[in-house]
């Protein structure tokens, strides 16, 4: 293939990898009650079926981003895709819930390698005039896959069984591996000679792991319990250690010097806050329809499609507009639209609520997030030099995924925090939960509290996005002009 068509072939190949990985962030959102029942898993184990993948995927993205800058992207991408496919096959044979959780961690490692190489390869390959469109397509595939996950997961569980939530990855992975081997060109690492920051990686893993553990267990075993307090102490102590170490090591995992650029710093913080605010909407709506309205997994998955519709409609439109309007205008407007959607969800979550209001709220959340993500990602990738794009994308993806993890744990905590001990398990039982009319009112109140909290977080992300400036435009162009495409 010639140099003119290569970027688009690369985009198609990497989009298939993104599709595979991001589907697995949400296929279990609807299937979770079925897995919990099959393995007879309690609330703690049920939480970690979801959180194990999200946590390790988030941390390892940052690690493998540095590896990609040092060793090259093609080789790591192929290794990650092969590993992800193989582990997905093994997940269907898990004999108990804890083996499944371990396999989910290995699956997350393969997914992290894929994701951390995708955006830098696209940024390196495309000229600036078409980069916005390419990143818009990439964001569209990623977002649509993550939001379609509940529909696909619900379908396989309803028609077949839970194993096919993992096994459907295998044929897609094999096709993607063969295709990538043919299309992708070997590109040497642009940061050769640098070393891995092992202590920094360890510190950030222990810090985030402690936070996620505390959020996931606080409403189950009590916020004053020793394990929960210990997790919060771990978060603070190792976060301080991480910041202290990164300012002294020669080749840090996170170059804090890049955060002197206000636009870069605010774009990354807005990435985290947007993920924290929007990521658990699909999970909450799917569980709401299963627990409150007794819908099966497939129908509950269909009920979250408005989020997908909004994202699909917004991403390509905003990708085309990103060359004409500022990142500040597009990103902040998108977050404002998402906040209106959150307001509708918080007001219209109840036993007698009309589905059309819930659908409208979901659509606005999806469309607003689509408006935000493409220009925000472009801004981050073009404000750093090519040799730092792996680390920059790793940090962006890690912040986004940590937002997803915390959002999931926090939302489940908020829903169950208003429930008595004997009702907490009903959230994970889905349509199989045996609850009375009064219990349903309590459960609806828990969902309403979660949506209100997400709305407040969206308002905060609007303020952060607005705080960026537009001085990075010239810098973005200079960085792009120095890149050989």
UniProtKB/TrEMBL annotation:
Domain Major facilitator superfamily (MFS) profile: from-to ranges: 10-473
Membrane topology designation: Multi-pass membrane protein
Segments passing through the bilayer: 47-64, 76-95, 101-123, 135-158, 164-184, 196-215, 221-245, 266-289, 301-321, 328-348, 354-373, 398-419, 447-467
UniProt KW keywords: Cell membrane, Membrane, Transmembrane, Transmembrane helix, Transport
Pfam families: MFS_1
InterPro entries: EmrB-like, MFS, MFS_dom, MFS_trans_sf
Keyword Membrane included in the entry's annotation: yes
Compartments, as annotated in UniProt: Cell membrane
Protein name in the entry: MFS transporter
Organism: Paenibacillus chartarius
Lineage of producing organism: Bacteria, Bacillati, Bacillota, Bacilli, Bacillales
């Amino acid at each position: 293939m010639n140099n003119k068509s290569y970027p688009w072939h690369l985009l198609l190949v990497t989009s298939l990898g993104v599709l595979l990985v991001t589907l697995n962030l949400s296929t279990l959102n609807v299937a979770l009650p079925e897995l919990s029942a099959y393995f007879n898993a309690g609330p703690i184990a049920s939480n970690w079926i979801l959180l194990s993948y999200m946590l390790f995927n988030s941390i390892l993205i940052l690690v493998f981003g540095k590896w990609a800058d040092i060793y090259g992207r093609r080789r790591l991408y192929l290794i990650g895709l092969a590993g992800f496919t193989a582990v997905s096959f093994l997940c269907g044979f898990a004999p108990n819930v804890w083996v499944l959780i371990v396999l989910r961690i290995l699956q997350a490692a393969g997914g992290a390698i894929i994701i951390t190489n995708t955006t830098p390869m696209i940024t390196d390959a495309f000229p600036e005039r078409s980069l916005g469109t390419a990143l818009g397509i990439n964001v569209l595939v990623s977002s649509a896959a993550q939001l379609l996950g509940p529909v696909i997961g619900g379908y396989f569980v309803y028609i077949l069984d839970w194993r096919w939530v993992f096994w459907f990855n295998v044929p897609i992975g094999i096709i993607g591996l063969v295709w990538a081997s043919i299309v992708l060109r070997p590109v040497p690492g642009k940061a050769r000679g640098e070393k891995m920051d092992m202590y920094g990686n360890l510190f950030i893993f222990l810090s985030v792991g402690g936070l996620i553990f505390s959020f996931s267990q606080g409403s189950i075993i009590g916020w004053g319990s020793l394990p929960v307090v210990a997790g919060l102490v771990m978060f603070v102590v190792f976060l301080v250690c991480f910041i202290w170490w990164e300012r002294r090591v020669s080749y840090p995992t996170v170059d804090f010097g890049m955060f002197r650029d206000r636009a870069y710093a605010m774009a990354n913080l807005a990435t985290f806050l947007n993920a924290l605010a929007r990521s658990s909407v699909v999970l909450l709506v799917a569980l709401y329809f299963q627990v409150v309205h007794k819908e099966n997994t497939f129908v509950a998955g269909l009920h979250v499609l408005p989020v997908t519709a909004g994202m699909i409609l917004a991403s390509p439109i905003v990708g085309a507009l990103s060359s004409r309007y500022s990142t500040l205008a597009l990103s902040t407007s998108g977050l404002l639209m998402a906040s209106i959607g959150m307001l509708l969800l918080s007001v219209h979550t109840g036993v007698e609520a009309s589905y059309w209001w819930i659908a409208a709220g979901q659509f606005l959340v999806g469309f607003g997030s689509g408006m935000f993500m493409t220009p925000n990602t472009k801004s981050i990738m073009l404000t750093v030099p090519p040799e730092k794009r792996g680390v920059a994308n790793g940090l962006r993806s890690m912040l986004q995924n940590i937002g997803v993890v915390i959002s999931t744990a926090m939302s489940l905590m908020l829903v169950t925090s208003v429930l008595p001990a004997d009702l907490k398990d009903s959230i994970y039982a889905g349509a199989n939960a045996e609850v009375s009319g009064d219990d349903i009112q309590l459960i609806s109140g828990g969902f309403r509290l979660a949506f209100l909290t997400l709305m407040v977080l969206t308002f905060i992300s609007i303020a952060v996005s607005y705080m960026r400036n537009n001085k990075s435009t010239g810098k973005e162009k200079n960085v792009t002009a120095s890149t050989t495409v």
